[in-house]
Amino acid sequence: MEELNRKWFKIVWALLLFASLTIDYIQRMSDALWAHGPVVEALDKILLWIMLPMTLLLFVLYWIGNWRVGERYFWKKLRTQAGAMFIGGGLGFLLVLVVRWCKGDAVEMSSMARATVLAIFSVVGLMLGYARYRLRKMNEE
């Protein structure tokens, strides 16, 4: 398990993940022939089948490591991270609802509405992040 904590392993994993996400994004957003060619399609599938089990394995090993530190630590980490996922999922769902409400029956949103929605959610995210930071600082003191 010590190999998973090495810097080079995390760097290689992050680079493979970035490459996989980049290729997927290019394929979704581009109509170019090279982006949908057999070589790029094969590379996308290979990276997907490498990164999916590798990410799942790292996730499981991370939680096993937390359990080995201590049962109380494990449950505290799980509670805080589950809360963060719940808040993030709720904000994502709210974002989808706001975008749907702004769009109405239109195919596209106006750039002003898009900028307004982005600004509102950016400010809310910054406020939540700052509040978490201040709360942690107060708890440390």
Can you walk through the features of this model?
- This protein has 141 residues and is mainly alpha-helical.
- Helix content is 84%, strand content 0%.
- The protein contains 4 helices and no strands.
- Helix 1 packs across helix 2 and helix 3 runs antiparallel to helix 4.
- The longest helix is centred in the middle third of the chain and has 33 residues.
- The chain is flat and about 55 Å long.
- The chain starts with 6 loop residues before the first helix and ends with a helix.
Structure keywords:
flat, mainly alpha, single chain, 141 residues
**Mean pLDDT across all residues, rounded?**
83
Give the strand content: under 5%
Distance between the termini: 34 Å
The largest β sheet comes out as: none
Helix fraction bin? over 70%
Radius of gyration, Cα only, in angstroms? 20 Å
The count of DSSP E runs of length 2 or more, i.e. the number of strands, is: 0
What order do the helices and strands follow? HHHH
What structural class is derived from the secondary structure elements?
mainly alpha
Low-confidence stretches: none
- The DSSP helix count reads 4
Overall form: flat
Mind sketching the topology for me?
Layout: H1 7-29, H2 38-69, H3 71-103, H4 111-140
Helix pairs in contact: 1-2, 2-3, 3-4
Can you summarize this structure?
By secondary structure, this protein is mainly alpha-helical.
